[in-house]
C-alpha cells in the first residue's frame, strides 16, 4: 500500500493527526498525487476526497481581489443580484472564460470548463493511495450511461456523489435523479449551489431525508440564507473549502450551525499559496484553529463530522 504513517504526522497533536479534507481536486498541473501525499503527511491529514479536474488542461488561480469583492456582494441582499448578473457573463456557451474576465485570473490565463467530469481516470489514479478517495462528480445535464454510473459508484474509492450547479448551470429538478441515485447507493452528496437554487434547498432536504448533503464552499452563493434554511435539517451540513469563504465567514457560519454541522475542506491545490507559490495546507487549517474553538469543536470540524456524514462511522 502507498500510504505510510510518517514521523511528522505523529508529532501533530492527536486530535488533529486524523484530519479529513472533504474537498480537494486532482489537478496535476498544480500538484501531483505524490506531492499531495507528502503535504497530507506533513500536516497530519489522514484522508482527502478529490474531485476530477474541473477545467481543461490547467486552472489558474483567481485573483484574491475578485474573491474578496464577490464575498462582500454575495453576503449582501442588495448587492447579490449584481453579482448574479455578472456571473452570467463569465463564460461563453462552450464553457470558456470570456477575455474580459481573464483579467481577474492570475496572469490572465484562460479557464475552460469540463462539462463531463472524468471520474474514471480519477478512480484509476488514486487506486494505490489508501488515504485518497473520490467524489463521483456528475453534471445532471450531461450524464454518463446509467450502467457506467451504477458500476463505478460501487468502487471502494467513491465517497459520494458531487454536483456543482454554479459550474454546470442546472436546476434542482435536474438534480433529483442524482439525489435518488445517492439514496439508492446510500452515499452522501456534495453540492455546490447555483443562483435560483435557494428556494429549492428545503425541498431537496425534505424529499431526501436519508441523504447526507454537504453544501460546498460554505453555502455559496447564498451563505447566510442557506445556513438559516438548512439549520432544521440534521442531514445538512457545510464545508469550509476555498476562498469563497474567509475567516469572518467561517466564524459566522459556526454561530448559526455550530461545530457539529461544519466540515473541513481545502479546495487543494488552488489558492492558499506559500512564498514559493505552492499550495500550503497550513493556511487552510490555521484560519480555523485561530478561532480558538476548543479541542472538542476542532475535532468535530476536522475529523468526526466527516467520519459520520461521509464515511458512516
Tally of helical segments: 14
Q: Report Rg.
A: 18 Å
Range of strand content: 5-15%
Mean pLDDT: 86
Enumerate the spans where pLDDT stays under 50 for 5 or more consecutive residues: 1-15
- Report helical residue fraction: 25-40%
Number-wise, the strands total: 8
Write up this protein.
The protein has 313 residues and is of the alpha/beta class. It is 39% helix and 13% strand. The chain contains 14 helices and eight strands. It has helices at residues 7-11, 33-43, 64-74, 80-87, 99-102, 119-125, 146-152, 165-168, 172-185, 198-207, 224-230, 247-257, 281-289, 295-309; strands spanning 19-25, 45-51, 132-137, 158-164, 189-192, 213-215, 236-239, 262-263. Strands 1-2-3-4-5-6-7-8 form an eight-stranded parallel sheet, with helices on both faces. Helix 10 (198-207) links the parallel strand 5 and strand 6 (213-215). Helix 10 (198-207) runs parallel beside helix 11 (224-230). The longest helix is centred in the last third of the chain and has 15 residues, at 295-309. It starts with 6 loop residues before the first helix and ends with a helix. Residues 1-15 have low confidence and may be disordered.
Task: Please give a quick description of this structure.
This protein has helices at about 5-10, 35-45, 65-75, 80-85, 100, 120-125, 145-150, 165-170, 170-185, 200-205, 225-230, 245-255, 280-290, 295-310, and strands at about 20-25, 45-50, 130-135, 160-165, 190, 215, 235-240, 260-265. It is an alpha/beta fold. An 8-stranded parallel beta sheet has the order 1-2-3-4-5-6-7-8, with helices on both faces.
